[in-house]
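Tutorial, part two.
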Amino acid sequence: MPASEVETALANGHDAHVQPAPVAGKKAKGKKTMDSSEASRLLQARISQLEQDAAGEKDQELEIELSERAAEREVKRANRDLMQQVAKMDDMQKIDHLTKRSSELLADMRRLEKENQKNKKRGDTLQKERDTGRTELSKTVGLKEKLEKLCRELQRDNNKMKVRDQGLPDATEGAEN
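Running the prediction step on this input gives:
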Protein backbone atom coordinates (compact mmCIF):
# COMPACT_ATOMS: atom_id res chain seq x y z
CA MET A 1 0.00 0.00 0.00
CA PRO A 2 1.53 3.38 -0.99
CA ALA A 3 2.14 5.96 1.72
CA SER A 4 -0.72 8.17 0.51
CA GLU A 5 -3.16 5.28 0.84
CA VAL A 6 -1.90 4.52 4.34
CA GLU A 7 -2.45 8.14 5.34
CA THR A 8 -5.95 8.07 3.82
CA ALA A 9 -6.77 4.81 5.57
CA LEU A 10 -5.59 6.21 8.87
CA ALA A 11 -7.31 9.55 8.35
CA ASN A 12 -10.73 8.04 7.77
CA GLY A 13 -10.30 5.41 10.49
CA HIS A 14 -10.68 2.39 8.21
CA ASP A 15 -8.43 -0.46 7.16
CA ALA A 16 -5.88 0.02 9.93
CA HIS A 17 -5.86 0.25 13.66
CA VAL A 18 -2.56 1.73 14.68
CA GLN A 19 -1.88 1.89 18.38
CA PRO A 20 1.40 3.11 19.77
CA ALA A 21 3.50 0.36 21.26
CA PRO A 22 3.95 0.63 25.00
CA VAL A 23 7.29 2.06 26.02
CA ALA A 24 9.11 -0.62 27.98
CA GLY A 25 11.46 1.37 30.17
CA LYS A 26 9.20 4.28 31.15
CA LYS A 27 6.88 4.39 34.11
CA ALA A 28 4.33 7.09 34.76
CA LYS A 29 5.03 9.31 37.72
CA GLY A 30 3.82 7.72 40.92
CA LYS A 31 2.42 4.64 39.19
CA LYS A 32 3.70 1.13 39.56
CA THR A 33 3.43 -1.66 37.02
CA MET A 34 0.88 -4.33 37.74
CA ASP A 35 2.27 -7.70 38.76
CA SER A 36 1.86 -10.69 36.48
CA SER A 37 -0.75 -12.45 38.63
CA GLU A 38 -2.93 -9.35 38.65
CA ALA A 39 -2.52 -8.90 34.89
CA SER A 40 -3.33 -12.54 34.20
CA ARG A 41 -6.38 -12.34 36.48
CA LEU A 42 -7.66 -9.26 34.65
CA LEU A 43 -6.97 -10.87 31.28
CA GLN A 44 -8.76 -14.07 32.30
CA ALA A 45 -11.77 -12.06 33.52
CA ARG A 46 -11.95 -10.20 30.19
CA ILE A 47 -11.66 -13.44 28.20
CA SER A 48 -14.42 -15.00 30.28
CA GLN A 49 -16.66 -11.98 29.70
CA LEU A 50 -16.08 -12.10 25.93
CA GLU A 51 -16.79 -15.84 25.84
CA GLN A 52 -20.06 -15.32 27.71
CA ASP A 53 -21.06 -12.54 25.32
CA ALA A 54 -20.26 -14.74 22.30
CA ALA A 55 -22.24 -17.65 23.75
CA GLY A 56 -25.19 -15.34 24.38
CA GLU A 57 -25.08 -14.08 20.80
CA LYS A 58 -25.00 -17.64 19.44
CA ASP A 59 -28.01 -18.55 21.58
CA GLN A 60 -29.90 -15.51 20.30
CA GLU A 61 -29.07 -16.35 16.68
CA LEU A 62 -30.25 -19.94 17.17
CA GLU A 63 -33.45 -18.73 18.82
CA ILE A 64 -34.14 -16.31 15.95
CA GLU A 65 -33.52 -19.03 13.36
CA LEU A 66 -35.89 -21.43 15.13
CA SER A 67 -38.60 -18.79 15.42
CA GLU A 68 -38.25 -17.95 11.70
CA ARG A 69 -38.68 -21.61 10.79
CA ALA A 70 -41.75 -21.87 13.02
CA ALA A 71 -43.20 -18.73 11.42
CA GLU A 72 -42.69 -20.17 7.93
CA ARG A 73 -44.48 -23.38 8.93
CA GLU A 74 -47.32 -21.37 10.45
CA VAL A 75 -47.72 -19.28 7.27
CA LYS A 76 -47.85 -22.41 5.10
CA ARG A 77 -50.43 -23.99 7.40
CA ALA A 78 -52.55 -20.81 7.44
CA ASN A 79 -52.45 -20.58 3.63
CA ARG A 80 -53.46 -24.21 3.31
CA ASP A 81 -56.35 -23.71 5.76
CA LEU A 82 -57.49 -20.57 3.95
CA MET A 83 -57.47 -22.33 0.58
CA GLN A 84 -59.56 -25.15 2.03
CA GLN A 85 -62.05 -22.67 3.48
CA VAL A 86 -62.54 -20.64 0.31
CA ALA A 87 -62.57 -23.65 -2.03
CA LYS A 88 -66.17 -24.44 -1.09
CA MET A 89 -67.45 -20.84 -1.38
CA ASP A 90 -68.88 -18.88 -4.27
CA ASP A 91 -67.15 -15.68 -5.43
CA MET A 92 -69.08 -13.19 -3.21
CA GLN A 93 -68.53 -15.33 -0.13
CA LYS A 94 -64.83 -15.56 -0.96
CA ILE A 95 -64.59 -11.77 -1.26
CA ASP A 96 -66.44 -11.24 2.03
CA HIS A 97 -64.40 -13.88 3.82
CA LEU A 98 -61.07 -12.59 2.48
CA THR A 99 -62.00 -8.97 3.29
CA LYS A 100 -62.96 -9.92 6.83
CA ARG A 101 -59.81 -12.01 7.23
CA SER A 102 -57.55 -9.25 5.89
CA SER A 103 -59.16 -6.74 8.30
CA GLU A 104 -58.52 -9.10 11.22
CA LEU A 105 -54.93 -9.63 10.14
CA LEU A 106 -54.38 -5.88 9.72
CA ALA A 107 -55.70 -5.26 13.24
CA ASP A 108 -53.45 -8.03 14.58
CA MET A 109 -50.47 -6.59 12.72
CA ARG A 110 -51.03 -3.11 14.18
CA ARG A 111 -51.41 -4.55 17.69
CA LEU A 112 -48.21 -6.54 17.25
CA GLU A 113 -46.37 -3.48 15.93
CA LYS A 114 -47.36 -1.54 19.05
CA GLU A 115 -46.24 -4.42 21.26
CA ASN A 116 -43.01 -4.61 19.29
CA GLN A 117 -42.34 -0.90 19.81
CA LYS A 118 -42.97 -1.27 23.55
CA ASN A 119 -40.67 -4.28 23.69
CA LYS A 120 -37.96 -2.43 21.77
CA LYS A 121 -38.15 0.48 24.20
CA ARG A 122 -38.01 -1.93 27.12
CA GLY A 123 -35.06 -3.73 25.53
CA ASP A 124 -33.23 -0.45 25.00
CA THR A 125 -33.90 0.52 28.60
CA LEU A 126 -32.67 -2.84 29.87
CA GLN A 127 -29.56 -2.60 27.68
CA LYS A 128 -28.79 0.87 29.04
CA GLU A 129 -29.27 -0.41 32.60
CA ARG A 130 -27.01 -3.38 31.83
CA ASP A 131 -24.34 -1.13 30.35
CA THR A 132 -24.61 1.23 33.32
CA GLY A 133 -24.32 -1.71 35.70
CA ARG A 134 -21.26 -3.04 33.90
CA THR A 135 -19.67 0.41 33.91
CA GLU A 136 -20.33 0.80 37.63
CA LEU A 137 -19.00 -2.69 38.29
CA SER A 138 -15.89 -1.93 36.27
CA LYS A 139 -15.33 1.30 38.20
CA THR A 140 -15.92 -0.47 41.49
CA VAL A 141 -13.47 -3.24 40.61
CA GLY A 142 -10.92 -0.64 39.52
CA LEU A 143 -11.33 1.30 42.76
CA LYS A 144 -11.08 -1.91 44.77
CA GLU A 145 -7.86 -2.83 43.00
CA LYS A 146 -6.44 0.66 43.58
CA LEU A 147 -7.37 0.47 47.26
CA GLU A 148 -5.78 -2.96 47.58
CA LYS A 149 -2.64 -1.68 45.88
CA LEU A 150 -2.52 1.36 48.17
CA CYS A 151 -3.07 -0.89 51.17
CA ARG A 152 -0.14 -3.08 50.15
CA GLU A 153 2.03 0.02 49.68
CA LEU A 154 1.00 1.33 53.09
CA GLN A 155 1.80 -2.02 54.68
CA ARG A 156 5.23 -2.02 53.01
CA ASP A 157 5.89 1.55 54.16
CA ASN A 158 4.67 0.69 57.65
CA ASN A 159 6.98 -2.32 57.80
CA LYS A 160 9.90 -0.18 56.59
CA MET A 161 9.15 2.41 59.29
CA LYS A 162 8.95 -0.31 61.95
CA VAL A 163 12.34 -1.64 60.90
CA ARG A 164 13.77 1.87 60.85
CA ASP A 165 12.24 2.70 64.27
CA GLN A 166 13.66 -0.50 65.73
CA GLY A 167 17.09 0.54 64.50
CA LEU A 168 16.83 4.12 65.89
CA PRO A 169 16.68 3.33 69.64
CA ASP A 170 19.79 1.17 69.29
CA ALA A 171 21.60 4.01 67.54
CA THR A 172 20.63 6.55 70.25
CA GLU A 173 21.73 4.23 73.06
CA GLY A 174 25.10 3.78 71.39
CA ALA A 175 25.52 7.57 71.10
CA GLU A 176 24.79 8.09 74.81
CA ASN A 177 27.48 5.64 75.98
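Residues 38-88 form one domain. In part three we will examine how such features are distributed along the chain.
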